[in-house]
Design the sequence.
């Protein structure tokens, strides 16, 4: 994991803006490593990724979002799509020692085909699903998910993405899908694209989902570019102040 830190740090920094959010935020490296370490230390078994790998290379390079497999160069990580985090591949690499069951889900068939190419060395760990994220979660067994990665949708327009993520977490809570020591990891919470496009809320894809989770028994563990949540062992405290940042009101 450490060898990929420069790429994760660089591309996370390019996606966020300390002036917009009122503080610097740690890169995906820190939150991903925390989740993978937690998964290993707690005997995790099942990973669910909502929103799979879309591209063989990162934005700005020839071949971005192309189906041509010639653009995938496994020996040149500097060109991988770090702007999107490369979660599918990193999860397989970092957790392979325990043989996890990784479900990667996307509504777009070509995205799933690209993910199959990128993760081919670890295909024995994967189940690839062409499905809406909400419908997939409705088919999961209660208590079966040890790490849930929420990354469905685009950064702009943000409203459809945020509303879809709200539906995802509603199913998560209603069906009690997370295992007792499981984690939820939300990507792109401190992404600068929505506020630069005029969105006043500063929680990105988590515009609605974060508060829903916090009001349904989840606590924020890490609050950075990505946000990590765990199920609280305390009674739900509905009087907590809302975690909603608006332009001009960030702490």
Sequence:
């Amino acid at each position: 994991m450490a060898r990929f830190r420069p790429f994760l740090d660089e591309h996370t920094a390019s996606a966020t803006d300390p002036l917009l959010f009122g503080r610097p935020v740690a890169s995906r490296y820190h939150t991903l490593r925390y989740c993978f370490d937690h998964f290993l230390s707690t005997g995790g078994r099942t990973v669910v990724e909502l929103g799979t790998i879309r591209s063989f290379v990162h934005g700005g390079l020839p071949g971005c979002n192309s189906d041509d497999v010639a653009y995938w160069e496994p020996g040149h990580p500097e060109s991988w799509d770090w702007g999107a985090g490369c979660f599918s591949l990193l999860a397989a690499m970092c957790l392979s020692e325990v043989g996890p069951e990784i479900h990667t889900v996307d509504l777009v068939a070509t995205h799933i085909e690209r993910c199959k190419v990128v993760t081919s060395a670890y295909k024995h760990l994967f189940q690839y699903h062409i499905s809406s994220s909400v419908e997939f979660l409705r088919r999961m067994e209660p208590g079966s998910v040890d790490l849930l990665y929420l990354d469905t949708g685009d950064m702009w327009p943000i409203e459809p993405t945020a509303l879809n993520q709200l539906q995802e977490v509603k199913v998560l809570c209603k069906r009690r899908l997370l295992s007792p020591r499981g984690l939820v990891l939300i990507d792109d919470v401190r992404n600068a694209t929505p506020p630069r496009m005029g969105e006043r809320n500063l929680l990105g894809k988590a515009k609605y989902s974060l508060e829903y989770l916090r009001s349904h028994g989840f606590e924020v563990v890490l609050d950075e570019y990505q946000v990590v949540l765990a199920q609280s062992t305390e009674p739900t405290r509905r009087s907590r102040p809302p975690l909603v940042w608006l332009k001009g009101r960030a702490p």
Summary: The chain has nine helices and seven strands. Residues 30-53+85-231 form a domain with the Rossmann fold fold (CATH 3.40.50.150). The beta strands are 46-50, 101-106, 126-130, 145-150, 178-186, 218-223, 227-231. The longest strand covers residues 178-186.
